[in-house]
């Protein structure tokens, strides 16, 4: 692997493990056994490393959140969506832990984030409308936008919420699956009687992944 | 007003207006037309000012979120809860904008926040159970804890969500009332047929405060 890529990879791992605000370029260089000068040859500062990681994040989001094809199984789509959310939160947890600060610090990154945010809103809207059309859920058409925003907020700030509501929080599989269960609970009251059992099975699957008694 | 109190008051205003991370002790001193030395006579650093503001926050939370008395009107309690949420978000918006960072920086403040957080969780739980007992809503008993956590997360990160989902965000009445409408939407699918109209009226009231067409 090229040094530049090794720096990006190591930075992502260190940011996720210790929080972006606790990791300096010196930590990153020392972790890789390279000199700070060598790191600065590749990146002017930490912001530039974050921008490179953010490119990977954007690619990850594009690939893992595929558009909803209305012909296919709607519940399968819900499950695929939740798996994609899991993967994004798990691989880029440091972003979700510190989003407002990282965005406030770098207006260009914020613009890029807003672009991704809007694409994600469209995909969540398509998911909700897909479930509605397949009669999996029954929600007032006027509420769809607000409901999609609630889901987006719930996902985006799940890690921040966990970190501010208990003494010590490490980002584990279980923690993220517990967040997905909250998203499933948001859908639950809208589920039609025909699909109650299907969504119950889906919930049981994520509960076992989250190590929660169902 | 004593200089110490003037510093606390001005800091709160500046933090809310510009974001805590953009305001230095020099800004605060210059805003009050006092010397930095005079400010440092009262507070060692910005952290100490924030701790003093946090004391006010704790008092505010204690006073405005009164415990639910089961004998009284359940919908009135929901409305009182929402008004109290409005007031907390409005008066201490800078905290909600930067909570994970402020907590990570000051472990003692984090412990105090966790205490308040747990009290608030108890109050939200009591609110949900109060609405359940008054048959305003019908929710599975097993879901009450998760539902209360969803409400808490929705409220706590509403301002962070707004700030990261649009280019420029100023904290206005309308913005906060739009957040309260999201909380009402969380309750909506659980509302019993008997109370549908009551909750619809409550929603209409907040929509008019948020300047949203209903």
From TrEMBL, chains A, B:
One of its GO terms (molecular function) is DNA binding. The keyword Transmembrane helix does not apply. Pfam families: TetR (PF13972), TetR_N (PF00440). Keywords: DNA-binding. The keyword DNA-binding applies. It comes from the Bacteria. This is TetR family transcriptional regulator. Residues 24-43 bind DNA. Residues 1-61 form the HTH tetR-type domain. Signal peptide: none annotated.
